[in-house]
Amino acid sequence: METLKRLGVFDSGLGGLTVLNEICKYNTGLDVVYFGDTARVPYGSRTVETINRYAEQDVRFLLSEGVEAILIACGTVSTNCLPALKRTFSLPIVGVIDAGCEAALAATKTNRIGVIGTRATVNSRAYERRIRELRPEVRTWGVECPLFVPLIENGFAPDDPITVMTVERYLSAFRDTGVDTIIMGCTHYPFLTETLERFMPEVTFINVGKALSRRLTASFRMPEEKTPNRVSYFVSDEDTGFLEIARRYLDAVRADNVQKVNIEQF
Amino acid sequence: METLKRLGVFDSGLGGLTVLNEICKYNTGLDVVYFGDTARVPYGSRTVETINRYAEQDVRFLLSEGVEAILIACGTVSTNCLPALKRTFSLPIVGVIDAGCEAALAATKTNRIGVIGTRATVNSRAYERRIRELRPEVRTWGVECPLFVPLIENGFAPDDPITVMTVERYLSAFRDTGVDTIIMGCTHYPFLTETLERFMPEVTFINVGKALSRRLTASFRMPEEKTPNRVSYFVSDEDTGFLEIARRYLDAVRADNVQKVNIEQF
Asked: Is B77 found in the same domain as B121?
């Protein structure tokens, strides 16, 4: 196994910065190229055909930047496009599903697991299928939470009454299911962790970015240098609003010096 | 003046159906081609450069469908791109600004007018500039309401407590301004008219689609045939969720037989 030197990470927007943040916490000596497709966000409400086309362009852009492996920090792409991307491209591509499912299975005691995500992620049932493959006796429930991303991207704080009421609305669907573990199947959702935990304190919420960055070593040989990670940021459209939010919430990542890409050329 | 037979209408999504609805209420004998850019919605949070590129593609698609004039049913495009589009293309192109401003000026008694819209619409200050040109003594206030479109597109009813709380949050910015008229500068917002009016019953909310369709006769000679209007629908991505919402709310428009367009080819 060659040591991974240059890793590509992409997301439909800048929500994947939560994943990047976790990677940078748990690793050193990496060159990371981050691409956020801010011109075409959100992917979650698009058709699978469109999401596939976008995801291929995202991978081709990262290849042009010389990355040796790609981490898909987008729940929607991971759930809908990963098998097709692996067939099309020869470099290693890792999504958030496996790590998220394994972390959830390690956490559950009731064998009842919930999944929250965008419409496309929940409808794909990708987490639920993978959980059933790994442990068939586990029961799963998926709940679409389509307003969470707009709330976060438009600056509604996690403790804003509108955010809290929306969290309560969506999570009420889990009442009477007995789930003790819920996978946050969208990389934006870690921004809401405290609000989610306050409404369902008995539940373990799985941050798939954290789960993924912890098990990167299972997929790749990571650098041994203890030098700081170097991150290059690219977006397809400027979105200073979200960068501001990112700076406020993320600790292990500096998001500045962002370059713009015309993603439709790839 | 030639009689207008074939009119093109476009919006970033399907919110422009509220404008189409008004056109179909007040006119007959028209062929209308409606395009909703559902693959790239929302425009409101993109940069002006990106919105300009999208709007040019939208116009080129409608031209390929043989329309003789174009009505921009999108507040974001009307406010940001209309002068550039008029320079680039020779057919008549009409936006929502002028009609909205004239209706607001006819309604106000206090000479204090509010504008609500997406971030791009409000930041463009296009309504406010036009109002000042027409009547310099009028004072204006613009307020961004970026969560309204996601609420509507994700099926939150106008009387849902989360919708009501969001309306109250955004509209509270008009407290102490003395506005008696507010322009709904986004074609989705007519879905929320009752909720807006309930919170500010003393205010007249201007539906720019209604204002525009009433004064189409000022820009074009309209057909005299009393035959029903014929509408062809095109979208850049399927979005059955919003079509369902449209069917529930609109009365003068039937939204079925929708065809798909690859808008990036134009």
From this structure: no
Q: Same domain for B121 and B159? A: yes
pLDDT digits (tens, 9 = 90+) for B114-128: 999 988 889 889 999
Domain containing residue B119: 97-208
Per-residue pLDDT of chain A (266 residues; tens, 9 = 90+): 678 999 999 998 778 888 999 898 888 899 999 999 988 887 877 888 889 999 999 999 999 999 999 999 988 898 889 999 999 999 999 988 988 999 999 999 999 999 999 888 898 899 999 999 999 999 999 999 999 989 988 889 999 999 999 999 999 999 999 999 999 999 889 999 999 999 999 999 999 999 988 878 777 888 888 888 888 989 898 765 666 766 776 777 776 778 889 998 99
B169 and B113 part of one domain:
yes
Q: pLDDT tens digits, residue range A64-98?
A: 999 999 999 988 898 889 999 999 999 999 988 98
Q: Confirm whether A147 is domain-assigned.
A: yes
Closest approach of A145 to chain B, Cα-based (Å): 9
Residues A81 and A103 in one domain: no
Q: Shortest Cα distance from A171 to chain B (angstroms)?
A: 15
| Residue A101 annotated among the catalytic residues of the structure | no
State whether A89 and A111 are in the same domain.
Answer: no
Q: How far, CA to CA in Å, does A175 sit from each of A34, A71, A72, B71, B154?
A: 38, 34, 31, 48, 22
Closest residue in B to A49 (Cα) is B237
Going by C-alpha positions, the residue among B113, B50, B99, B57 that lies closest to residue B76 is B50
**What pTM does this model have?**
0.84
Chain A residues near residue B166 by CB distance under 8 angstroms: 162
Per 3-state DSSP, chain B is made up of helix, strand and coil in percentages (nearest 5) of 45, 20, 35
Interface mutation target, options B118, B154, B242, chain A, most CBs of A under 10 Å: B154
Cα separation of A156 and B162, whole Å? Answer: 13
Report the distance separating Cα B103 and Cα B45, nearest Å.
27
Task: Say whether residue B217 is in contact with chain A using an 8 A CB cutoff.
Answer: no
**What is the CATH classification number for the domain harbouring B227?**
3.40.50.1860
* Residue B29 included in any domain: yes
Q: A92: helix, coil or strand?
A: coil
Domain count of the fold of chain A:
2
B74 is catalytic: yes
Question: A156 and A73: one domain?
Answer: no
Q: Indicate if A77 and A131 belong to the same structural domain.
A: no
A1 in a domain, yes or no?
no
Query: CB-side exposure of B155: number of CA atoms within 13 Å?
Result: 13
